[in-house]
Amino acid sequence: VTVRGRMARSDYKFWHRFRIRYSEIDGQGILYNAHYLTFFDQGITEYLRALPYAYKDETARTGHDFHTVKTLVEYAKPVEFDEEIDVCVKAGRIGRSSIRFDFEMHGRDAEDFRASGEVVWVYTDQATHKTAPVPEDLLALLTGLEGDAIKA
């Protein structure tokens, strides 16, 4: 499986900066592979906060939450200790009950591609564990930022 073709960094309307800590590198001195998903996950949190979408409040209010059902990372170039990276995030596709988030990782403020990936979330009623439609207010915020092309 391959992530969709790369976009220009400028095509992303949101990014969040991270600095690589010593605890995140491996024996080769580069970002350990499992941490990419941690950065993607935190990128989603910051993306939703910037919309603004109160994720925790909505989950508590509705009894619904998103479950991660797919993750994918493609590595292009190493990320080293103490380096600053920008994780670019966008909602790539929204289905009836799912959202696919697309990511690119770049060196700070540069068209310096390091990795790409995706995370797919499915919205679920926590009492029944059945899927539910993506909330209309979240859908409106996402399409307001990314445009209608993201709707499946």
Structural class designation:
alpha+beta
Order of helices and strands: EHHEEEEH
Low-pLDDT parts are none
Span between termini: 20 Å
Q: Which strand order spans the largest sheet, edge to edge or round the barrel?
A: 1-3-4-5-2
In summary, what is this structure?
The chain is of the alpha+beta class and 152 residues long.
What does the model show?
The protein contains three helices and five strands, in the order βααββββα. It has a five-stranded antiparallel beta sheet with strand order 1-3-4-5-2. By secondary structure, the chain is an alpha+beta fold. The radius of gyration is 16 Å and the shape is globular. It has helices at 35-50, 55-62, 136-146; strands spanning 14-19, 64-75, 84-94, 98-107, 113-125.
List the helices and strands and how they pair.
Elements: E1 14-19, H1 35-50, H2 55-62, E2 64-75, E3 84-94, E4 98-107, E5 113-125, H3 136-146
Antiparallel strand pairs: 1-3, 2-5, 3-4, 4-5
Descriptive labels:
alpha+beta, 152 residues
